[in-house]
Design brief:
Helix content of chain A: 25-40%
Largest sheet of chain A: 3 strands, antiparallel
Structural class of chain B: alpha/beta
Strand content of chain A: 25-35%
Distance between the termini of chain A: 33 Å
Oligomer: heterodimer
Helix content of chain B: 25-40%
CATH superfamily of the largest domain in chain B: P-loop containing nucleotide triphosphate hydrolases
Shape of chain B: elongated
Number of helices of chain A: 4
CATH architecture of the largest domain in chain B: 3-Layer(aba) Sandwich
Number of domains of chain A: 1
Bound molecules: adenosine-5'-triphosphate, magnesium ion
Structural class of chain A: alpha+beta
Order of helices and strands of chain A: EEEHHEEEHH
Radius of gyration of chain B: 24 Å
Number of helices of chain B: 14
CATH class of the largest domain in chain B: Alpha Beta
Largest sheet of chain B: 9 strands, mixed
CATH topology of the largest domain in chain B: Rossmann fold
Largest interface: A-B, 36 and 37 residues
Radius of gyration of chain A: 14 Å
Chain lengths: 114, 354
């Protein structure tokens, strides 16, 4: 589903996707650590690198790619993540689980949110 | 990004204040710095040293993965100026991705894909063609044989350029005697690599030739490949139409808009008497399109020339651009472009930055 509005909060740390009456809100940190870019993901799931220390990351700008995705440009210089509408929806749907897993993965590796 | 640029210029200034004046162009994109320096051809050695010195200095900047310094002398400075737009890895500069699919095998996806890609280019757009059929890649054969892709300075795969379009296929990357036993996840990885590790650069259209069928692999691919829309190929034959219906349902499941149906091998025009015969039935795809509320994008006759030109790797749209079939492809290309434009225009979200 394609959102009607994509709203970046004033402090640039929160992205709201508005689909008609329902809204999905995703934090910049959550989006950053779940970037779908090839370099962030590696080429297979076991190559997946965990991104840590992004608690205070913010989104500098948003670009629409074709009609299938957006590219988010973060203030840490990361700009290769292309978030398709489908991916954004999946992220929102499984937000709590993904986040829980991320936090425990950080802990396991002795890393933190920064 | 622009602060990295300022930082880079500052560092050059500290390195040697004279270097500042040599900067012709500096661009920062995707963690890379592209810098072009005005040089004097008679002093190649000196400038090569400067280039290495600068690269070493700038790679130290936080958040930068690579630095590419190009030397330009004045006569050809325009041509060689660093331009990150032409060296973008992956599909971030691709405006529209259109997949060509069918429920059933052998209905002419690959033939249609290459000819439509060339036709859209003839309409004045920048076009790429990705062969997503990792089980049976056909693009190498359709362009007259296998070629080995070059690797760019930054270590990415460069697409093959032929017939004025950019092409990539697993057939270019894997040798023919390597047995290709692909399982689901590997197929997705291979396709993702061809999307993300290839320097597609700036394209208006990327056509994706899909593997036949509507199984799990196709479904995942339809989810993973960020598509603008899908085109379904069908023959008028009933059986193929049932499969076309499955194709339509599959894309609906993953919210990919169907741009329309193309009917292939619709009629046979006898080369001797010009009589038209409906070998696979009459206007089946057109009726199916109407029933399913999808657009009919056009038909392609069964044509010996089309098969022969494909077999020798000279797509008819390129080798015989004024033939009847080529005119059909051009008409279909126009429909595809128009349909894409209206699909992507109507649905753009607003971006609101407070
Ligand atoms: N309109 C046509 N007239 C004559 N021959 C055609 C036509 N369309 C396709 N063919 C021929 O039919 C064969 C199958 O076409 P093609 O490879 O394009 O189908 P496909 O759908 O991509 O197949 P697969 O499902 O195996 O990927 C080829 O030999 C091709 O040259
Ligand atoms: Mg094929």
């Amino acid at each position: 589903m394609i959102p009607e509005n994509i709203i970046l909060s004033k402090n640039k740390k929160e992205l709201t996707l508005a689909y008609g009456a329902s809204n999905s809100i995703l934090s910049a940190e959550f989006l950053r650590v779940n970037s779908p870019s090839a370099e962030a993901k590696g080429h297979s799931s076991d190559q997946k690198k965990i991104v840590s220390g992004k608690k205070s990351v913010s989104i500098n700008s948003i670009e629409i790619i074709g009609n299938y995705a957006i590219r988010l440009i973060f203030d840490d210089g990361h700009s290769t993540g292309i978030y398709t509408w489908q991916y954004l929806q999946d992220l929102f749907k499984e937000k709590d689980e993904i986040w829980k897993e991320y936090i425990s993965e950080l802990r396991r590796k002795g890393l933190n949110r920064g | 990004m622009s602060d990295i640029k300022t930082l880079a210029i500052e560092r050059l200034n500290i390195l040697n204040p004279e270097y500042r004046d040599l900067i012709e162009d500096i661009v920062v994109a995707n963690k890379k710095i592209y810098l072009s320096l005005k040089t004097d051809k008679s002093q190649v050695d000196k400038f090569t040293k400067i280039k290495l010195q600068i690269e070493k200095e700038l790679i130290g900047i936080d958040g930068i993965d690579s630095v590419s310094v190009s030397l330009t002398s004045h006569s050809d400075s325009k041509k060689q100026a660093a331009d990150p737009k032409n060296i973008t890895k992956g599909i971030s500069e691709v405006k529209n991705i259109i997949s060509v699919a069918s429920g059933k095998g052998g209905v002419g996806k690959s033939t249609t894909s290459i000819n439509i890609a060339i036709a859209i280019n003839k309409l004045g757009f920048r076009v790429g063609l990705l062969d997503a059929d990792v089980y049976g890649p056909s693009i190498p054969k359709l362009i007259g044989g296998k070629q080995k892709p070059k690797i760019s300075k930054t270590g990415n795969i460069l697409p093959i350029k032929k017939y004025d379009i950019s092409l990539m296929s697993i057939g270019f990357l894997v040798s023919e005697d390597t047995p290709m036993i692909w399982r689901g996840p590997m197929v997705i990885t291979a396709v993702n690599q061809m999307l993300n590790d290839v320097e597609w650069g700036e394209l208006d259209f990327l056509i994706v030739d899909m593997p036949p069928g509507t199984g799990d692999v196709q479904l995942t691919m339809a989810q993973k490949v960020p598509m603008t829309g899908a085109v379904i190929i069908s023959t008028p034959q009933d059986l193929a139409l049932i499969d076309a219906r499955k194709g339509i349902e599959m894309f609906k499941k993953v919210n990919v808009p169907i741009l329309g149906i193309i009917e292939n091998m619709s009629i046979f025009i006898c080369p001797h008497c010009n009589k038209e015969s409906h070998i696979f039935g009459f206007e089946g795809a057109k009726i199916e399109a109407r029933n399913k509320n999808v657009d009919f994008l056009g038909d392609i006759p069964l044509e010996i020339d089309l098969r022969e030109s494909s077999d020798i790797g000279r797509p008819i749209m390129y080798s015989k651009s004024d033939s009847i079939v080529s005119k059909k492809f051009l008409d279909i290309a126009k429909s595809v472009v128009n349909k894409t434009m209206s699909t992507s225009k109507s649905k753009k979200p607003n971006i609101i930055i407070n």
